[in-house]
Each structure stands twice: as C-alpha cells, then as structure tokens.
Amino acid sequence: MQALVDKFAAAIINPLLLLMFAAAFLYFVYGIFEFVRNPEDSGARSKGIQHMVYGLIGLLLMVTAGAVFNIIKATVNSLR
Q1: Please, what is the angle between helix 14-37 and helix 42-78, to 10°?
Q2: Distance between CA atoms of 19 and 70, rounded to whole angstroms?
Q3: 43-62 tens-digit pLDDT
Q4: Which of 12, 24, 74, 75 has the most other CB atoms within 10 Å of its CB?
C-alpha cells in the first residue's frame, strides 16, 4: 500500500500541485504587473489588486492541499 501511495504521489499529485502552484504564482505576478503598469487608472489598479488577491488565495490553497496530502500519506504509511 505504501509503494502505491508513493507512486501515485510522485506520478500524479506532486506534478499537479506544482503546476497549479505555478499557475497561481503567475496569476499573482500578472496582478502585480497590472497594478504597476496603470498608475492613473483606478479601475485597472483595482483589477490588479483582485488578481493579486486571487493569486494569493490560489497559492494558499495549493500549500494547504500539499499539506493535507502529506498528512494523508503519513497516515497511510503509519498504518502498516
């Protein structure tokens, strides 16, 4: 069972979490770029702030998902 969980994590979960983490980070960086690029346009600046907030929420969710999966993996590994 432990080998199956480790293979599943290495083949599917870890790359998926990394891809989603990278997407959230790029969305956050896009929000920063949009915020800095439009100093006079308050609508575009607020849209940039929204993108930064959503990017941070995505980053937090990915870190939390990784932690939850590691807890599940440790629990399964300790059952043997």
Answers
A1: 160
A2: 17
A3: 999 999 999 999 999 999 99
A4: 24
